[in-house]
Amino acid sequence: KAGVTQTPRYLIKTRGQQVTLSCSPISGHRSVSWYQQTPGQGLQFLFEYFSETQRNKGNFPGRFSGRQFSNSRSEMNVSTLELGDSALYLCASSLGHSGGSDEQFFGPGTRLTVL
Amino acid sequence: TQLLEQSPQFLSIQEGENLTVYCNSSSVFSSLQWYRQEPGEGPVLLVTVVTGGEVKKLKRLTFQFGDARKDSSLHITAAQPGDTGLYLCAGASGSARQLTFGSGTQLTVLP
Predict the structure, then answer these.
(1) Is the pLDDT of residue A100 over 60?
(2) What is the pLDDT of residues A14-46, one digit of tens each?
(3) Cβ neighbours of residue A75 closer than 8 Å, sequence gap 6 or more
(4) Which residues of A touch B33 (CB under 8 A)?
(5) Closest by alpha carbon to A32, among A77, A87, A96?
(6) Residue A8, preceding peptide bond in cis (omega within 30° of 0)
(7) Are B4 and B101 a contacting pair, CB within 8 Å?
(8) Gap between the Cα atoms of B101 and B35, Å rounded
(9) For A106, which of B42, B92, B93 is closest by C-beta distance?
(10) Spatial contact of B15 and B80, defined as CB atoms under 8 Å apart
């Protein structure tokens, strides 16, 4: 079974631009979560999508948004990029059922650099 | 806000030594997951512990979930250079699927 895939793997943008990142979950997984990883803050939760609906949201500004398609693929968009948005953006998929045993599997990430 | 304190932050040991990484919180988690991450890659799930007091063993790795489900530990026996990486604990609460991550332990095993 193929794992979580993310595209692109690397991206360089300049301040003020916007960017769209893509994530394809493991086949059969209906939940997709996005995380931002930086050296200073570690891994922080952005949001989670399930059945095309945002189900949970972390403490990030409205410049960060996402969506999920009917095939469970998800995209994340960041508008008006700032230098501090430089990070590894990770996508994780899971079956999406409630309870603590819903294991999340991560993709390789997209390394975003904002100049 | 739930926090997971992970210690130590850095650990450098010789091949063959044993080590323990700790993950502590004042909050109760419904489950706790341990991941290992290598540079430029996403975290890879090692184990999920769900029941208070649970102990799981994967070859040389032993994971324990505290009785109160607030803390966990990862013990590696006879560490090998291939164990080098960033070890992350992550807790889930109730029905929420968002994970709260610890700050990570960077392990280096020297040959």
Answers:
(1) no
(2) 999 999 999 999 999 999 999 999 988 899 999
(3) A20, A21, A22, A23, A66, A67, A69
(4) 103-104
(5) A96
(6) yes
(7) yes
(8) 10
(9) B42
(10) yes
The pLDDT-based confidence of A2 (bands split at 50, 70, 90) is: confident
The span from the CA of A36 to the CA of A101, in Å, is: 22
Average pLDDT of span A74-89: 97
Phi, psi (deg, nearest 5) at residue A90? -110, 140
> What is the pLDDT at residue B95?
60
Q: How far apart are CA A109 and CA A92, in angstroms?
A: 9
Residue B50, number of CB atoms within 10 A of its CB: 17
Cβ-defined contact of B97 to A96 (cutoff 8 Å):
yes
**Mutating which of A7, A37, A59, A68 best tests the B interface, going by the most B Cβ atoms within 10 A?**
A37
Torsion sign over Cα A20, A24, A30, A32: negative
Hey, which residues does B36 pair with through a beta bridge? B44, B87
Question: Does the pLDDT of residue A63 top 80, yes or no?
Answer: yes
How far apart are the CA of B50 and the nearest CA of chain A, in angstroms?
A: 7
Q: Which stretches in chain B have pLDDT values below 50?
A: none
